[in-house]
Amino acid sequence: MDIFRLSPDEFRDSVKGLADVLADAVASGDSLGFLDPFDQSAAEAWWHTRQPAVDDGSLRVWAAHGPDGITGTVSLVLERKPNGRHRAEIVKLMVRRDARGRGLGRALLTTAEQAAAGAGATLLLLDTETGSAAERLYRTAGWTRYGVVPDYATDPAGTPKDCCFFYKQLT
Fold it and tell me: What tens digit of pLDDT does each residue of 31-64 get?
């Protein structure tokens, strides 16, 4: 599996593939900020709204490419506030259901962590649904859980779910 950071032009050209991954994740019940029904066109529209941040460099997006196109993605949001330039946030780590269980999520996470360090970040943050496979991934990848907020977000069916917040200090 090859993982590439998408340039602004590559991002624009990859929206359909990124939308496939997002729509699949939502259909599988992953809490990513969207409610059912959520289709391909809604996923594409959401990714299109990310283009200005990709263009200005505040959002970095990687895609994992397999024989059938994009199979996973992760994004890194760089903090722009002067007092927070040492931190960044991992967002929208997703792997298509048919590609899960083979280490791709961990590879995407590691890619984003290394890129954050290369950009000068020394502190990373993220959040995820409590009890999810993603929570297990972050725990085993050396992230520290610092809190749980009950009913923080709903799953795609609209059911409120607890969310845990993690940080990782980079050296």
Answer: 899 999 999 999 999 999 999 999 999 999 999 9
Distance CA 125, CA 128 (A): 11
The percent of residues in the chain predicted with pLDDT above 90, rounded, is: 96
Q: Which residues contact 155 (CB under 8 A, 6 or more apart)?
A: 29, 30, 31, 129, 161
Complete domains list, the chain, with CATH: 2-169 (3.40.630.30)
Q: Give the residue among 126, 22, 137 at the shortest CA–CA distance from 77.
A: 126
Instruction: Convert 120-130 to b/e letters by CB count within 10 Å (16 or more is b).
Output: ebeebbbbbbb
**Average pLDDT score, the chain:** 96
pTM for this one?
0.95
Residue from 40, 41, 44 nearest 15 by CA: 44
**Counting every residue, how long is the chain?**
171
Of 24, 123, 114, 17, the closest CA to residue 65 belongs to: 17
Classify residue 18 by its DSSP letter.
H
